[in-house]
Amino acid sequence: MPVASAQVDISTLGVKPGDATDNTENLQRVLNEGPGMLFFPAGTYRTGTVEVPANRTLIFDPEAVVQPVADKVKDKNLFVVTGNDVQFRGLHYDFADGGKDVNETAVWNLVYADGVSNLVVSEADVGNTDERGLVPLKERKRRGRLLNRDGSDPAKKYNHNGYYNSQVLLWVVNCRDVVLENSKGFRLHAMLHATSSANVTARGNHMVSGNYMTKFLEGSENLRHHDNWSRDVKYQVCWFGGSPDPSRKPYLPRGSSTVAKREVKPGESGYNPHTSGAFDVLVQNNYAEYGNTLAWGNKGRQVVIDSNIARFISDYAYGSEGGENLVFSNNISINSTAGGIVSMYWGEKLLITGNLIMVRHEPWEEEWSWWDSPAKYLGPFVRLHHGPSNEGDMYGSGTVMITGNLFSNELSTRTTDISIQAGRDVTVSGNKFINGRVNKFGPGKVTVMDNEFVSRLEYDPLSVNIMPRGSDMVIVKGNIFRQEAPIMPTDEQLASSEASKVPYFLFTDDDPNAEAEEGAVTGDMPAISIEANGPFFGLVEDNAIYGWIDAISGQIRSNVAGASILVLKNTTDGIITVDSSNPKSTALVENNTEIPAGLMPQ
Q1: Residue 402 within any structural domain of the chain
Q2: Do 477 and 545 touch, CB atoms closer than 8 A?
Q3: Distance in angstroms (rounded) separating the CA atoms of residues 101 and 81
Q4: Does the residue 445 lie in any domain?
Q5: Domain housing 63
Q6: Distance between CA atoms of 323 and 257, rounded to whole angstroms?
Q7: pLDDT per residue over 444-464, tens digit each?
């Protein structure tokens, strides 16, 4: 940035505040001629579109407000940055402009830049006071809580406020070294929208209601999104590098599910927005509540999501679609509908470590909820999703390490799971589960090793559930399974006023409006269950299982050839049952140790 000069009061240069004053021409003249640092004292400044050349700093008094002159606004942009080294400090703006429908107002992008570098917007306070009613609580369906202006349900448009690509504080295209910091947004489409840009930072920002705080897309590189706060924002931060699911979109190139072309830019031969990728993303130290996700993106490469906190998220707290080289570390998720951490369609080289994922009894605020019931937020710990098969494309998560996490479920009526859907190569190692389980469905290789599963339920829960289809290899080795006394509410808690404030305070999620969780079981089940439906190798070895009536259950379907289940050297006080009647497959149970009755503490 240039060396700062003394700021000059813009009113001394002919730009005057006043509701009836059109400052467009005078402001453009001052911006063109200088000086470089301009101060806007308190008042209302009306202007049409102006261009901001290089080496300009615009500083606004907290009581200075900008309003548009509608017939002089060009292309929906108010401030168009045309040169490098530009700063805006303290910009205040209301997109509703006196209560108007924002879809009919003159300005959609407050600051717009194309092809510049070193652009900073700080201490802005930008919103949309266009009044909207709330969707009645009983009718909320995850797609937001605010009605459209005409009173219709926003779910029909799948857009949080019913607005389309409008109300953007800062929109940059093909820019470098861009910063949005210490700013506030209210009911915006986005605070920062970056297309084909590099070295973009969003930090210290605060947003209530809207679609995006930070949107990063089409081949953009190096995003740092940190120390931000949001409530009722659909996506606090997202990166769009292209859809990883050609099977559902006929206009996408077949075989492109794993493709991200960093070197091909918009306008160049071979460019496609769905193979453009998004690169080098760091999301750190942010907080979000009552939104759709905190951090999510597709076709991301080199993505680190670290040390964030998310509460009451109506989809998943942290996720990736078609991502590669991903780290989810040291995050906290409390009550996320689709999972604390999710990988969808395709994923490669995912490290999930040091996270605390909770399903728990947390005070719930109806006013901000996207769902009609708190029970609908009580989703799984982790979900590794598998997209539909499509010739030429790859789906499912491969080279995944889930290690050193604490998965805690405080509900008393069911377990909460890690769901692995056709994971290609997944290891779950060194984690602690409270009332949790691992579910494996479909083909792929999975290792469940050196984890601790603790049950505080009134029944014996299924803790490792293997239901392979097709060619698989599953190893369940060195895990500890143990039962503890159920945690139930005290008489004081039952009588507490909190019981009326929090519908599931009574340690249950029995809710007639809640959707049934896939695989939920409330009767006694084995700690480990394996059912082979095709060629398969399963090894269950060196596990310690205490407190289950049925410790291990294995079955190979009668029509299956080439399957094997080996149960070796486990220690348990429960029953091991493996069906070995199929002559076309192998079942082996050897060298297991039975703990005599009465030795284990009750």
Answers
A1: no
A2: no
A3: 26
A4: no
A5: 1-227
A6: 10
A7: 999 999 999 999 988 999 999
